Fold:
Amino acid sequence: MPGSEPQPPFVLIVEDNPLIRRQLSAMLQSKYAVKEAASGKEALAYLKTGKIPDIILLDIIMPGMDGYQVCMELKDNKVTSDVPVVFLTSKDETKDIVKAFEYGAVDYLIKPFRKEEMLIRVNNHVEYKLARDYQRKLIEGKNQLIAELEKALKEIKTLRGLIPICLHCKRIRDDDRGYWKKLEQYIGEHSEVQLSHGICPECIEKYYPEMVHPNCWEYKGCDMEEVENCPAVLQNRGKDCWLVAGTMCKGDVQGNFANKIVSCLECDYYKFSTFKVDNESLE
Structure:
C-alpha cells in the first residue's frame, strides 16, 4: 500500500533442535521477520499456505525427512525453486559440503554458529534474492508493455490486410463483432487516423448540380416542353444562362419553327432541338 512501511525480509528456520532454533531467531529477529519449523514436513506444509520466505535456513540431519529431501522438494516446486537455501550442519568435510551444493543449496553454516559470519552470509543471499526479484518484476513489466504494444500494432495492421467492404454502401464488416460500420468509423477505431469530411467534384456534379450549374436552364427544373412553349424563358433566361447559337438556323422563314442549338454559358452544355419561338423575343 502507498505510504506503508516496507516489510522486512522473511527468514524460515527449519531445525529440529529447539535451542538452536531460538538461538538463530534471536540473532535474526532485529532485522528479519522469522518463522520457525521443527521438521521438514512442517516447513513444507507451511509453504503451501502461500507465504514464501526470502531465504530458508535448513538443518541437514532431522528425523523423518532430512535436509536433502526437503531441499529436493523445494527445488522441484516452481513456487519455491528460486528461494535460496542455506544448510545448517555440524559436518565440515568436503564431501558433505559438495553434497549440499549438489542438492541446490547456495551456502552452508557450520554449527556452532558465529553470529557475525551468519548475519553477513544471510544478508548477502537475501539482498541478492531481492535484487533478482526486482529485476524479474522489471522484465515482466517490460514484457507486458511489449505485448500491449504488439496487440495495438496488430490491430492497426489489420487495415493492411483483407477488409470485407460492401459493394454498394461501402460499409466495412468488423470481424471482431460482426457489425457493419461506416468506413470512417472503422478506420477511426482501428488506427490513429483522423478523418475530415469533404466532397469530390464527381459527387458534387451528381448530388449537387445546382452548385456546378447555378444558371443552367436544365438544372433549374425546366424540361424541353417548358422551354419550347415559354417565350419568357427564351427572353429572360437566355440573357444570363443559355444562348441560341446564330439566333436562328435555316428553317421556316416565318420563324414559327426553327432549329436551335442551345448552349449553357456556365457549363458548355450543348443540345440540339426544335423550338417554337416568338420572332420578336429573339431580336
